[in-house]
Amino acid sequence: MKKWIVGFSILIATIILIFIWNGKSELTRIDVEVVEANGNNDEEVMITEESSIENLRSVWGKIEWEPNKIIDMEAKEVVKATHFLKVSESKPEKLVNYSIWFHKDGTSTIISDEEDEGFGELDEENTKVLEQELLNN
């Protein structure tokens, strides 16, 4: 009976880990467009360096998302960022688009086209890292 319980527990744990692993995607690249005040794209940069990707992945995990909140920003975004996510070997990359505003108080606002993200905000500390990685690459 003990062997059956241990075997069943291992099977359940394996299934849970498979679901967790399959739900995660790997950020492989970020395309950044800096938008001028007049709405034109000023410059475009592709971020592929692993240390920058890791810094941005860490910051992105700290965004406080409000999925069902609709917000109308008065000004044009400062940065447009497209995340390239590798979901699996057999599927093409998934693209997620973000519009980013940097505020005078040192915080930032992010709007995502992902349904489960929507509208998000970052504090001053994480905004500094975000701004450094996106604008100084």
Structure, explained:
The protein has 137 residues and is α+β, with helices and mostly antiparallel strands. It has one domain (25-135): Sandwich (Immunoglobulin-like), CATH 2.60.40.4400. It is 33% helix and 34% strand. It contains 3 helices and 7 strands. It has helices at residues 2-23, 50-60, 124-135; strands at residues 26-35, 41-47, 64-66, 79-86, 94-102, 108-112, 119-122. Strands 2-1-4-5-6-7-3 form a 7-stranded antiparallel beta sheet, covered by helices on one side. Strand 6 (108-112) and strand 7 (119-122) form a beta hairpin. The longest helix has 22 residues, at 2-23.
Provide the spatial order of strands within the biggest beta sheet. 2-1-4-5-6-7-3
Mean pLDDT comes to 82
Tell me the radius of gyration: 19 Å
The CATH class name reads: Mainly Beta
